[in-house]
Amino acid sequence: KNEVEQSPQNLTAQEGEFITINCSYSVGISALHWLQQHPGGGIVSLFMLSSGKKKHGRLIATINIQEKHSSLHITASHPRDSAVYICAVWAGSYQLTFGKGTKLSVIP
Amino acid sequence: KAGVTQTPRYLIKTRGQQVTLSCSPISGHRSVSWYQQTPGQGLQFLFEYFSETQRNKGNFPGRFSGRQFSNSRSEMNVSTLELGDSALYLCASSGDSKVETQYFGPGTRLLVL
Known about the structure:
The complex is a heterodimer.
Chain A: E1 4-7, E2 10-14, E3 19-25, E4 31-37, E5 43-49, E6 52-56, E7 59-64, E8 69-74, E9 83-90, E10 96-98, E11 102-107
Parallel strand pairs in A: 2-11
Antiparallel strand pairs in A: 1-3, 3-8, 4-5, 4-9, 6-7, 7-8, 9-10, 9-11
Chain B: E1 5-7, E2 10-13, E3 19-24, E4 31-38, E5 42-50, E6 53-57, E7 64-68, E8 74-78, E9 87-94, E10 103-104, E11 108-112
């Protein structure tokens, strides 16, 4: 059974801080998603990656396939980054397995 | 391109009733996946359809079913509702769900009383 673990569960940061959210999984995967969910429920896919590193604006995602680990970094955090960040993996079938999410609050 | 749409957005039902939720994918997308999100369990996969065929099903009882139409629109049905079925139901579409970015709809929030 594929387990996806995220840490931390909750994170409070001051505006401008550098933030890291971690995701570990237990089986081989085809790819990993980082998702963002704002209050109200809408989910946006931030990144999908299967190796290396991707960058979009202030967001950076990295993955280490051998260590079964991925990180999401937010540079110069802003209150609008406040959301739940969810890691999800494709593990060979037509379904995503999700972590429990990290709730991020960025305080002005 | 219009995004993924879901109807209705909110729904209140009583135990024992049944409910049908609808999802219209992004134009050209043939894969639709359904997920249930609850505070206790987080996001869980329900099922996935591609070109009217169910390709995978999550670990949910048979009361949860779905289908996909030739225009790729999808419906999911929950029969004999239980209190524990109260959740946010999300659908997501992609060209082909295998290792491809999924685009999520806004969700249908179901409350079972």
